[in-house]
Design brief:
Blueprint: E1 9-13, H1 18-29, E2 33-38, H2 41-50, E3 55-59, H3 65-79, E4 84-87, H4 102-126, E5 132-136, H5 149-169, E6 175-181, H6 190-193, H7 196-204, H8 214-225, E7 236-239, H9 251-256
Parallel strand pairs: 1-2, 1-4, 2-3, 4-5, 5-6, 6-7
Helix pairs in contact: 1-8, 3-4, 4-5
The chain binds nicotinamide-adenine-dinucleotide (NAD).
Amino acid sequence: MGGQVEGKTAVVIGGASGIGWASARLLAQEGARVVIADIDAAGAQLRVDELATPATARRVDVTDEGSVQSLFEAAVSEFGSVEIMLNCAGINRPGYITELGASDWKQTLDLCLTGSFFAIKHAGRVMGRGSSVISIASLNARQPAAGFAGYCAAKAGLAMLTEVAALEFGESGIRVNAISPGLVETPLVTPLTSVPAIQSDFTDNTPLRRNGTPEDIARAVLYLGSDASSWTTGEVLDINGGAHLRRYPDVMAHLSS
Ligand SMILES: NC(=O)c1ccc[n+]([C@@H]2O[C@H](COP(=O)([O-])OP(=O)(O)OC[C@H]3O[C@@H](n4cnc5c(N)ncnc54)[C@H](O)[C@@H]3O)[C@@H](O)[C@H]2O)c1
């Protein structure tokens, strides 16, 4: 029996770690040919070596448009087409607005928002009917967090960029969606989960009372990448154990106490 994405090619940007890696692994298990693309080229190659199915590692820096364009051109020349793109690279440079340096602001916006624009733009240029563009936004696209100005603004921008791209790509039969995770245990958030007061504030503000796993998000990526979601576009899917129903923890206050 074929997998849920049998015969499709998936380009996973930020695929060497965390949510991207869990998604790449699940897409491969479900029959996709996977391109694991990351600024960490060695990490991407190690992940490819862990997979049992045909896969390729590529270095990409999403802040560099030429690098993103080359990634998609190389994927098309190697595999013939690209049907799934997961846009998963992200960072957060926290700081209160009155203290936040321009370079920290710009780095977060460059990676999370402009990088997403480059990824969606060049995916849209090579993809065809029945393809799926997926971005990882965040709970912070809808829930503000003191000290996360750049991250919140970038992720809210990504949610709107997803909707605009869904409008523009719909005629070509390309679907564009995003997933907004709550706190998911990856290297990105170890500085938060390792502080007991921060961890318990997250748990108290999550009705299902646990952190997410990368696999929780990967299963939604599989759904959005597969034909099971063939009438879904312009959607920003909250996957967070219900955390959007409460408030975002005051991480900065915990860190300074
Ligand atoms: N972990 C969470 O709690 C959480 C919550 C909400 C949203 N997110 C979002 O999920 C996405 C994945 O995060 P994660 O938690 O898996 O983090 P992670 O740090 O485990 O993985 C991020 C990957 O992106 C790569 N990367 C960084 N800069 C890059 C660049 N310029 N070009 C290409 N690749 C680059 C890194 O090398 C790394 O492999 C991010 O967009 C993040 O903002 C994470």
